[in-house]
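I would love for you to help me understand the pair of lines that follows before we discuss the fold together.
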Amino acid sequence: MSSDTKAPGENESAAIDPFDPKSFQQPANMTAGANAGEASPLSVPGITQVKLLVFDMGHVFVDFDWDEVCNGFCARASISRDEFKKVLAYLGGLGYERGQISTSDFLRELNLKLGTTLNLEEFRVLWNVSFHENPDMATLLQGLRTRLPLYLLSNTNEEHYGFLQTTFNVARHFQERILSYEVGCAKPDHSIYHEVLKRSGLPAAHHLFVDDLEPNVKAAQAVGMQAIRFSGIDNLKQQLQAHGIAV
């Protein structure tokens, strides 16, 4: 989470995004199918029937202010944003969002780089500040899940997902959750999309993927999925309807 997002380079918040592992390295920045009795999606000429919806999390239905996160750590360590960017660049290489380092080891490295002695609870407060679930998107997801299976495909880490699940029960929307830190790979690596296909058992063309980041959308299309770049709920509803999905 997510997580709404501006184009890369548009501002500092977009350049460093905890839901996008590559951004840390920038110096600035069931078997699928409707259950019995559920309505089937409409068939639209020229468009392959969508049988499964796959959603990103951060800046799609969960929002956060990454500036607030950065400012909290900077204040705690008495360092500038430029200094913190260098710390983030180092931390991004540790693979926390791909499950390559534990939370305790990640925190130890963070403390070493910041010169702090944050304990786990202090880290959680700073790391998870500003998260909130978008209520309109939550309502939309609850409606969609009565029509089609919904999967979550998110670049996230143990602490972010744990907080979001405990606080907002994000899992209630989805039949399957493919989380980068659990499967060992992250978008836009094609491997994580193939994990979706493996779990669904459906041809790629029957999946419709929704993400706010263009590289992730293009990667989904490269493996054969239909895909939408999220730019707000109104546009999403229009695009879903264009794919034959009533909202």
Notes: The two ends are 24 Å apart (CA to CA). The longest strand covers residues 150-154.
